[in-house]
Amino acid sequence: MKKFILLVLILVFFSGGLAVFWLATLKIPDFASFHDRVVTESTKIYDRTGKVLLYDIHGNIQRKVISFEKISKDIKNATVAIEDSEFYQHRGVKPTAILRAFWINLISGSVQQGGSTITQQLVKNTLLTQEKKITRKIKEVILALKMERVLTKEQILSLYLNENPYGGNIYGVEEAAQTFFGKSASEVDLAEAAYIAAIPKAPTFYSPYGKNRDKLEERKNLVLKRMLDLGFITPQEETAAKAEKIIFMPPSQSGIKAPHFVMFVKDYLEQKYGADEIQSRGFKVITTLDWGLQQKAEEVVRDYGEQNAKNFNAHNAGLVAIDPKTGQILAMVGSRDYFDTTNEGNFNVTLAHRQPGSSFKPFVYAEAFIKGFTPETIIFDVPTQFDANCASNSARCYAPNNYDDKFRGPLTLRNALAQSINLVAIKVLYLAGIRDAINLARNMGITGLSNQNQYGLTLVLGGGEVTPLDMTSAYSVFANDGVRNPYASILKVENNLGETVEEFTPHPQTILPSQITRTISSILSDNQARQPTYAANSPLYFPNTQVAAKTGTTNDYKDAWVIGYTPTITVGTWVGNNDNTPMEKKIAGYIVVPMWRAFMDYALTKVPTENFTPPEPTPENLPPVYRGFWQGNQNYFIDKISGKLATSYTPEETKEEKVVPAVHSILYWLGRTNDPQFQLWEQPVRTWAATQGLVDQTEAIIPTETDDVHTPANQPRFMINSPSDSRTYSQEERIVVTTGDYRGRFPIGQLDVYLNDTFLGSIKQAPYELSFIPQEIPNLQLENKLRVVIYDSVRNKSEETIGFQTTSN
Length: 809
Hints:
This protein has a 5-stranded mixed sheet. A 5-stranded antiparallel sheet has the order 7-6-16-15-14, with helices on both faces. The longest helix has 24 residues, at 2-25. By secondary structure, it is an alpha+beta fold.
């Protein structure tokens, strides 16, 4: 017996020695590394409200670290209740729980239970691997004891809640709250907190997006029961939380919304801050995107894109919307379906260089207006050869047609731009100057144009290449009264401490005089001017809102555009094929306008309504050809009644401007008869005039006699009979204005009455009387002045004034 006891003691001593030696040689991570580790936080990209998460840029995780104070009490209590009810009493480990787990694992022959406290779980999640071995468990216990000596319970719980996995790549309660409920961890209610606490036991099994929602519900109720048992909540709160119907946020496809826009923003961020920083430093990015407009944009591009693919062989489309007052991008869709990789869906066509067709014309016209031409300026739309060497070298001939192969003769620039007449646009480019037109387009935001020698006169027909984003941004200058705001995609960037590292700052720059942009907007919103090309009720026409718009189709039918705007939104759309395959031979109105209109109809209900400021009238002192007189450029004025030369006494209403008929090209009237293009333009105009039977005339047709109808002698004479200047009138009595002793060559045509310069009304038939009650007049005085203006039937006029008094109230 003594030998047996001695053997047992030797074995125990030897085993103990081995255990001591094993523990002494066990490699345990340095606890100091816990403080030095970098907690990876993903960068999150939001819409302009900061509430809709568009994308989480991350390597393998999504996490947002928040302070203990920003975690709701319910989340803290729910987690403690279900994970470690004695958390605030133990010192890092619970020996009884460890022994119980050891016994169960020993019986089962494998590691089934861990008996881990929250502190131990934090150690496992941050400093150790997830392997299920005895050695890992011993390390976990040792490090947990160390952690409890250097950190407070609040610090441990805060770290645990920020590190905890909640399914997939979601880590931390803030990420869980945002993903599941669309709110921060400080805003969740009791039932939501119970769900969050229920998930970490088996994040995939209990995922609200999985097939075990009933099991998640059971565990949520268990969490609430444990909270009740521990006194964290009342029975009434438990009952209410169990009954509450929680709606989980829908999971986004591939974890990304507005993908083309998000990748555009991501590229900017990586270029500025570096890819590693963006993936790990927890930036919060508030973008300019309007999620409601973006959803509608994606819908119309998808739906109309499918129709265009079927009907017009146009397999791709793009749309950009910008706030012209700020330059902020409100929506961006770069293809019909970002996730359709077989059709290059992830290619962002709004950033691709495409030929703009006639949508480039407004920039050229704007430059022409800068140089003094007006919307009324006349240019002839007649067949024109623009290359003087055509006769000797047919390869150099350039005589473009209009879209309908028709020519219209004399056209105002207003009608030519509104109807998108190609031949007139080429002449306008020549007059404006290619170099200056390119410079203006660049200043307005077009970045893709290179050397002017590359384009020639075809530039105005879209011979250059531009991006839809640039075009939409440049059109915003027209919308914003000549002020350019460079396009922007970010409102604010915050680091993981909540500090602002970048914030949107406006950089407005005046590019065009407001008169020029108002003129362009007036033309592009003039439904009557464009009717010969577009129907009266075309999709470009908005009955109750002023909307300016311009279409564009390339000659080879590879690109179709519409860009339109109001003072509060600019929308650019493009349709075509990424590989430059031609579409069906249809103009943009058939292909892209319906898509643009569908989005614009929606957008106009979401942005403020604002009309364009009208341009100032064209100055009357300009030469007649600048003001719409194509018959000639030497003007004179006649009186329409007498047919004789107008005088200073001739009323404006009866004055008519005429010109001496002599039909020439505008180069003739500009004095550019030595211009290389002069004969090329002049001869077709002279030919056209001859076919119309028009013959030049001389100054001999100008009348020599002057207006003898409107003279001082013919001015009417009269007196004011009432009111009287010799009496005082009560403010309540009705005063009748009467006149008498009329003398004139022509009968009375109209009588106008003014009181203290306020217009009271006109009388155009006998007995030519008007009445009023003084107290109803807004600017009534005690001493008042009444003025009566009489016009005879040919608009000779005279006036009389009389004073009268009224009583005070």
